[in-house]
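Database export, one record per block. Field names are fixed; values are copied verbatim from the stored entry.
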Amino acid sequence: MNQAGRVQRHSILLLTCVLYYLGTGGCDRSPTDPEPPDPTDYIAYFADVNSDNWVFGYHILSGQLDSFQVPALPTPRTPSLGVPEPRMVVSPGGESIYLALEDSVLAVEIANPQQVEVLPYAAEFGVSVSPNGQYLAVLNREGLNILSTDGYSLLFHDTDRVLFGGFSADSRVFLASHWPDYAYRLQIEGGFNVQRRVCTPWRLGQVIPSPDDSQWYLLTAHAECDAAVEVYDVNADSVIHRSVFAGYGEIELLPNGRYIPYTHPGELVGVCGGGGSSFSVYDITTNEVHPVDVVHEGGVQYHAMRDVEVTPDDTWIVLSAGGLVAVVNANTFELSNHVLLEGKNVNYLTIQNSP
């Protein structure tokens, strides 16, 4: 009898159970239980401002790259303090792209880009769509407009000129900044109630609420080379953490409420210099900052990522700068996938905000 034949029966059963555990999720799992779902191959959309109105869709797992043409793109962004940025956002389910233009908003059907609806609202300060897909916020010099995505009727208007607006994960709150002094909070449920609050002595940029709205995560600035990520305790009415960095960037919040990835593209401002890490991650639970280097094959490190988005399943951080789009694991902070488009200038990175 060979060596394999001499293995005791209980060892064979143990090995079988281990293999079954590794392959299907555990020895206690029934063969009739459904298989865990495959990871979602989310699509990161972006535009090349040097092209003739082309929008690209990068499948972050498979690496597939799609493209389609739209009637117009927003005016290119200016990466300096206090300048609002026209944006492009994708609907929560990934069906439509909203383009914020100086004189209107374009709602483009992704599966049929020739199907375009023009909304008669200037959007020089950008647009935002709620995770439940019911509301579209349009920001302009006349104030804030909240539209219903069902027919795009106007639900609410306010004359506060707000910037960098976004919805909470449950779509009940819209939060924005009135540059440079106060946070603007709109409670949508119960009749559109507005709260204005000064929450930092620094100039206020982005404001993102925690899942339970007990904390607000702020992107603030003191000068062109002094920006910060701040944690504001709503109940205590105080800033409880501030991480200062060089160069104004962008912040995002993982849906699980633990990590805040943020960019600091100092050299894009022209006065802060380059170098340092590609981006950073603030761990809310441990109060620690993790510098992250995006390194691809050949050992080349990409400095100064600019745009940052996160997937709604807490799995991936997606970043862009120049012609690069990089996909980073949200748990290990390691590069998982990337595409480098020579000669292109990636702008308006966006990804759906609902699974």
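Remark 1: The radius of gyration is 23 Å.
Remark 2: DSSP finds two helices and 29 strands in the chain.
End of record.
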